[in-house]
Amino acid sequence: MRSNDYLTDKQVAEQRLDRLQRKRERILRNAGPSGFGSGTSYTDYDNIHGSSGQCAETVLKELMNVNYDISEAQAELSDINRCLTDIFDIVLVANSSKTKVRYLRDTVGMPLKDIAMEIGLSYQRVKTISAELNKP
Hints:
The protein has 136 residues and is mostly helical. It has helices at 6-30, 33-36, 41-49, 54-92, 97-108, 112-119, 123-134. Helix 4 packs antiparallel against helix 5, helix 5 crosses helix 7 and helix 6 packs across helix 7 (123-134).
């Protein structure tokens, strides 16, 4: 985790995963016969018949790296989702509204309006509790 704001971490992880998946699609799209060729017939011939194997090796290596990064990003996203689920389970059984607001606001990074809906209090009451928590 880079911060105590799990929702922000989740958004960052989702964006990273999306970027990596688009990168993989781009690699696969460019790996076709037109992706290797340079427009000259002898280069295309070399690529098709394997006398210039470095291009295929480079593409495969890059593809393997991206696939590894994708699996890491998926694992990170899974961990964040599991943490969020655990936090919600623990916080929502807490007796104190202050405890609920504190954890949902500070740990999860939830906006006050969403907290109000989640714990069944009015937005004004959640706002008041939040202000009380900010006092030294």
